[in-house]
Amino acid sequence: MDEAYADLAQHGACVIPDALEPALLAEIRTAVYRAAENDRKYKWGNTYQYGNDDGINQRIWNLPSRDPVFCHLAELPLVLEIVQNTLGWPALLSSMAANITGPGGSSMVIHADQGIIPEPWGWDRPMVLNIGFCIDDFTIENGATRVAFGSHHLDRNPRAGEPMDLISVEVPAGSAVVLDGRTWHTSGENYSTARRAGIFSVYAMPIFMPQENWFLSLNPAVRQFGSETLQTLFGFRPQVMGRVNGMERI
Question: Among 156, 150, 192, 198, which Cα is nearest to 173's?
């Protein structure tokens, strides 16, 4: 982990091999592709935000409402350690979505995950953190995430037409790819004959509104059965901002 934190600070990204145990990886992979097939079958969420590729790629939002294994993923000890050491605590789960790129799928736009925050950012650390889990092997051929290493030092969004060196992150399934929220990145084009899935959990400081409106979209069972840590990540245990009648509990 010391090496991972050093890479994250220097390059704006790091890779953690074997972040998911094989049994957990298999369970998550089954749940992801089951949700993908259901969305296709019942025509839920057919749009792929951040890029137009005629419906080849697929994004599945609000994963914690799809299967309890995704709630488990959101609060893995490894994940919480990275979030607490990078963003501090409490923090919010801004979104958790699957990105499935199919054969012939195109890249999304080049962006930084905290790009919605007005510039200049001007902090010595990120305000947003993206922890991506590779559910399949990530290769150049199947559209592995492409990263502009070191771009977080510029502390701003990319400019239209700006030249940059994007490198594909080729790692085996079960790896975690952690991105500083200031780091520029995109998905690659899928030239292979198979789908490639990744899960991207975006965490943010508690002063920002999450990308996913959990108050409206979250399955009520998650609130009923989820741990106190999960309640905090979803914003149901506000410790400073977001109180109701001055109370920390909703």
Answer: 198
pTM of this prediction exceeds 0.70? yes
Evaluate whether 4 touches 129 at the Cβ level (below 8 Å).
Answer: no
Widest pairwise Cα distance in the chain: 55
Q: Is 96 within the bounds of a domain?
A: yes
Does the residue 246 lie in any domain? Answer: no
Cis before 158 (ω within 30): no
Q: Is residue 242 part of a domain?
A: no
Q: How many domains does the chain have?
A: 1
185: burial class by Cβ within 10 Å (0-12, 13-18, 19+)?
buried
Tens-place pLDDT, residues 196-241: 999 999 999 999 999 999 999 999 999 999 999 999 999 999 887 7
Residue 110, in any domain of the structure: yes
